[in-house]
# Entry
Amino acid sequence: MMIWCTIIAMALVTFSVRYIFLARSIPIRINDTTKRFLKFSAPAVLTALTIPIVFFPEGELHASPTNPFILGAIVAIGLSLTRLATIWVLIISMASFVACKWLL
# Structure
């Protein structure tokens, strides 16, 4: 029962936060500094999600040059810095990850 209450409460929190910014009936204005900071939220969340997968693939720190997760992440970062289309970054980095996993 407590889990369901937590899920419902978090759903309400998520909905209310998004509703405040999307509803036209609530006059909220965000200043330029806040808008600038919000641009960093997506990369921050993506980093928080990927770091444990890349460096702790089996629950323990595995930061060696033979870790295919690290090699795939390096390829993905390098490709994304070249401003390549996202789908190509995904395909090439996944292929390099699979190749590294197969070869190592």
The two ends are 46 Å apart (CA to CA). Residues 2-103 form one domain.
